[in-house]
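Work Package 3 (structural annotation) set out to generate three-dimensional models for the target panel prioritized at the project kickoff. During this period the team completed the workflow that converts sequence records into discrete structure tokens, so that structures can be stored uniformly alongside our sequence database. As a representative example, we reproduce one entry of 207 residues exactly as it appears in the project archive.
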Amino acid sequence: LTAALHGLQINRVGIWIFNDDKQAIRCRMLIDGNNCTLDGTLELARPHFPNYFNCLDNERAIVANDAQQHSSTTEFRDTYLIPFGITSMLDAPIRHRGNMLGIICCEHQGPKREWSNEEIAFASALADTYGRAISAAQRNDYEQQLKEINEQLEQKINERTETLQTALRNLNHTQAKLIESEKLASLGRLVSGLAHEINTPLGIAVT
């Protein structure tokens, strides 16, 4: 926004973003001179300013050289323009993924101002840059979320692998015990059979 202040030689500029249903637009950042506001409490509702919102629906820049008389901004005259000494406004649409997300609102204080084509193009370029910055920020957020998901998945895979390895070790230990038990049982049956085979002729001989 400071680029707008210096490039357009103004003292007041703000970023306004639509809510989800586009029935209101809220100020997310406002620079007025040396003061920068980030609280986002300033909001304009469509029912109160229908002409302005109709112009925003066209998704084109609003060039109000005489903001207090311009058809799209005169609704702000008593509640906003006069109290803040704003005489001229230039609103450039912010687009994100093909949709209008909000506007960069450039406000001139002092004598009425004729916005030049170069200034309009400059404000539009700043709005496009802000839109690309939002896309980059979202992309970084998605990448961070994907990284966290991958880390969680890797952790779950490691935990699952450890569980399976433990189960396999227990299974091998149990199998070894079963084999040993089977060997002992087989040996017992063999000894019992031999004893029977030996005892029978011995018994006859003794008799």
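The mean pLDDT is 85.
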